[in-house]
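ok so i was messing around last nite and threw this chain in just to see what happens. nothing serious, just curious
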Amino acid sequence: MASQDWFDKDFYKVLGVDKTASDAELKKTYRKLARQFHPDSNPGDAAAENRFKEISEAYSVLSDKDQRAEYDQVRAMGSGARFTAGGGGQGGFEDVFGGMFGQQGGGQRVRFGQGGGGGFEDILGGMFGGGTGFGQSSGGYRGFGGPTKGRDVTATTTLDFVTAIAGDTIKLAQGNGRPVNVRIPAGVADGQKIRLRGRGEPSPDGGDAGDLVVTVHVRKHPVFERDGQHLRVDVPVTFVEAALGATIQVPTLGGEPVKLRVAPGTPSGRVLRVKGRGVATKNGTGDLLATVQVAVPSHLSDKAKEAVEALAAALPDEDPREDLLAKARS
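result:
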């Protein structure tokens, strides 16, 4: 904003407050107006967008103690001044500033040129501590240090395991009561944060709005467990299936079971891999890892017990823990 615009813009009127308004009153009024005219609340409404910029511009000046004092001083100087182009009459624009620099209306006058060194903004800049405080930037009124970004808003959401793996669009309620749609990418992990740019609090001085940062929590699944991009599942098999071999069915997440071949003599703990049935993310797709768990029957009939005893008698007399004990002793 050009500095001479301060003579023409009544920031108190823009916000609808008295010149004696306190900082708390200014802040409360600004927040109410900013919510009302924010572009997100009025998509495609150019008038509302312009009104939002005016509100932000006014608040950026009046909320800063030093800028507010400067603004009040400039407005006080310009309230009764007549801006004339030459030396005709008393009380013109040059007389006002001439008096400030110790000159009388009939003496030498200060000239305010357009552009270049020594122009209007250079003089005001020198008066108020630097010529850069009254410039116009692409993001709105610069003030001191440029427009500030609005504050980020944080939220949390809890998803079921399947939704986190497949991805979905969910609806969250913001603090202002307005719902916001959040796109959950496929393969989101527990504790991951999703950032929605421009969905946070508006800037106090015409800059970019803050972001909405959503932290995702994922409920555990009763069957599957995530391991990076892989899914893990424990698959029980009988002793006979593990000893003699078998073709078994293994569940998949959100799909039909797949058939896997268990080789004869498969021990408990062996991992069988199903390619491409894990977690799909932008970095690729993992596998389904099925861990074999040999199930031991808890009750045996007399006939079954005799059969097991016969099997034990037929098997070689060996201790499967012999190697383990030897390593422990070494």
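not much to say yet. The chain is about 30% helix and 25% strand.
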